[in-house]
Amino acid sequence: MITTSVESQAELTEAERLQAMQLEHVWREPSGVVGWFKAAHHTTIGKRYFVTAMLFFLIGGLLAGVMRLQLAFPEAHFLSNDKYNQFFTMHGSTMMFLFAVPMMFETFSVYLVPLMVGTRNIAFPRLNAYSYYLYAFGGLMFYVAFLCNTGADRGWFSYVPLAGPDYGPGKRPDFWAQLITFTEVSALAVAVEIIVTVFRLRAPGMSLKRIPIFVWGQVVVAFMVIFALPGIVLSSTMLLLDRTCGTQFFNPAVGGDVLLYQHLFWWFGHPEVYLIFIPGTAIISTIVTTFSRRHVFGYLVLVLALVATGFMAFGLWVHHMFATGIPQIAESYFTAASMMIAIPTGAQIFCWIATMATGKVVLRTPMWWAIGFSFTFIMGGMTGIFVASVPVDLQVHDTYFVVAHFHYVLIGGAVFPLFGAISYWFPKVTGRMMSERLGQLSFWLFFIGFNVTFFPMHLVGIRGMPRRVYTYPPNMGWTRLNQVESVGYVLLFVAVLILLWNMIKSARSGVIAGPNPWSAGTLEWATTSPPPHYNFLHLPTVNGREALWDAAPNQPVVVGLAEDARSFLTTRTLDAEPDGRDEFPAPSIWPFWAAAATSLAFVASIFTPWGITLGSIPIAITMIGWFWPDRQPAERRRAREIWPSE
Amino acid sequence: MMLAAVPGFDGNQTALNPVGPGAAHIEFEFSLIFWITTAVYCIVLLTLVISIARKRHSLSVIPSPIPTTPESDRTARRSVAAAMIATIVLLFVMLVGSFETSRALGSMNPGNAVPIDVYGHQWWWEVQYPNDEAYKTVVTANEIHVPVGVPIRIHGTSRDVIHSFWAPNVQGKRDLMPGYETEVLMQVDQPGRWRGQCAEYCGEQHAHMSFYIVGESKEQFTQWLSDQAQSAVPPSTPQAAHGQQVFLTHACVLCHTIRGTPAGSRVGPDLTHVASRATIAAGELPNTIGNLGGWIMNAQAIKPGCRMPPNQLPGSDLQDLLAYLETLK
User: What global pTM score does this model have?
Assistant: First the structure.
């Protein structure tokens, strides 16, 4: 039994039309150029996150294309060694810090989570706007430096002492370290917003066991962000201090330790990989459910698998450091822990197959991407067993075998789900369907191109080709395989072009989607496409895991919230029973200025330690502006309070 | 012990053509994981494709969601549980294989091993054969001669940034880190030249930092070692004598050692027996007189960023210098 929300079922009554106008008035985003910078609704910010992250994906992809051209011929001089080292560092850093995490975590959670839990905005909307601007400024800084020939060139990991003051002259590693600061602050902000949104703003009835799996995935990621990022906050800050303030954390000549950096980095770096693909697997769960036309098989197993993956992610960082020479007992522990990750991941895969095998599979474009995901991601998981085993890892570590492995995991585990998610949620965001024909064409091109590009890397790695080499001798038996890889890149390039063309064309002239074109079960499909700025005319209540599929014929809606203010309902964390109401803050220009001031301090600190000291003054000023109390909401809040004496 | 190359991987820098017990142990575990994961991959994806093909629904209409009950999912639940048990069992097999391989690698007898010191530099390898009598210590670069069938104890560290010592036909890699000393036991069982390469990104010329492990018979090795322990032969022709003067009066002497002459700096490779080595520039170029001349004139054109500066020598000086270096067998 499918019921969708009131809007789609029947004409609005006169009262509802008035209510919609009132909400529209209260929630409208400020207009004009200045208004653009004030916007604070999660759908607005989410779209900006998407466009920005997509842009960085394209730039990172173009950098890869230039590298593939260089590597297509042995001893080529198309790129100098200096340029190549910048290109691969920029490619890795862009894809990890400016594309993958902002796309899979920030973009998707900011846009979708408030809709999926049935509330009107994300918790702390101004912080959300701040996080976006900080991310955008960080990326901008990184690429301005690159265009000034100061692109980071010490690898996306920037190991010391290579990136330290003695062997990394100039400002290149400093820009890399500050990029980390920008993106980590922005990711931490979104993590807090998502946890509060999911724990406190869910629709009544959406108890823990009814939270959509996609939302569970993002919550797990949010917690991982909070626990993983301090590792890299420390390591990149200590690196910057070594470089600008003369501290000696990593200088072995005076008792510093180069291995300490690696432990801190990978304490973050391994969970980083998981916080890229956990949203991916959560997207796959969503797509598989909708296109198998049944409740997902093994909901509890899938949720526990996500949570378990999140926990285990923190127990395997040392497998990136096996070659440093680890005591045998630690080797055994980290090998076992690394292999154990196959258990929750395997459980998820088996549950998806069970869902498809017992459902009715509809092979639309998003489902094709989910199938492509299975082929590539599972392959990445299989090669993961090779690198988990210490002895085998000692042979394949830092070779093209590992390059193949993590592209199968990350493109398989994040980009395939991402493209699936684009075709799945495009109708919700734009109100129009994407072309099915172009969608499947881009899928097949991408799937074939991906395997042609990355499969030979396994072979060339076993033939002994190390990573991060700007060229190689002609007689190593690597040339032909590298050329095949470069041809594969062309296919990937064309596939992405078609996908972009499909998005642009469909946004203008696609078939009108309606609120729920896939007749899916989660709450974002209960409102119009695109959603209004108040998200839902009637805040929904929930009666089952797939809110729309399980809704009772007369499923109640939330009533009693003030409609002349940005009110929202808070509910209890466990059972989502209503327990209060509050108001979202109004859109404001201050988060933008605060982000600008913060960026100024971060960039200045690359050049002088005083950057942080003096830079904190404008930050303080903008923060005061941001938190300056507003008379009206305070009075409204007072008026609502019930005093015992009154 | 398996000492067989996998077809297509019979090169001198591949993990699947082991020439020593270390690489052979690893190849065994590699094969074990390869066959298990390949089988699992095929079975899982075949199941996926069959499930989709059997349950495929037309594209035009999206059907209503089907109701599910615990009873209707019973078969699926059993299948998933069985698949999970199989996963855990197979993981355990591979895990035990991995432990066994690690144990085998760690159980080589270090007692009579030949000690060799390896130091990573940006971007070349310094190799020393320590001797109790310090003057007999052999210092060379980028070429590690070893006797076959005898355990070797590589003791290594780095003089600057982190490098990784890796000759895949012989043994897995080991990072050389400044501030840390490390030790690897290995053994070469087949005579030949086995190529190795730095595997940890170490800056501008990481791509050109290779070396050769030269496996030779015990007699050849002993002979080589005693030759290398000698000081350089004094120049015997006027041309070579002038070449030596060129060496000692130009920038060369600031970085290189030639034992038996006043040149004693340790910044660059020891050149006492440079003519006995097969390659120059860390394995990048064959050691011919033409390559050596080009390298001396402008190493930056060959290996941009390397520590060797360009040297503008008059033609005759260069010829004499090369003639001298050629005598350093």
Answer: 0.95
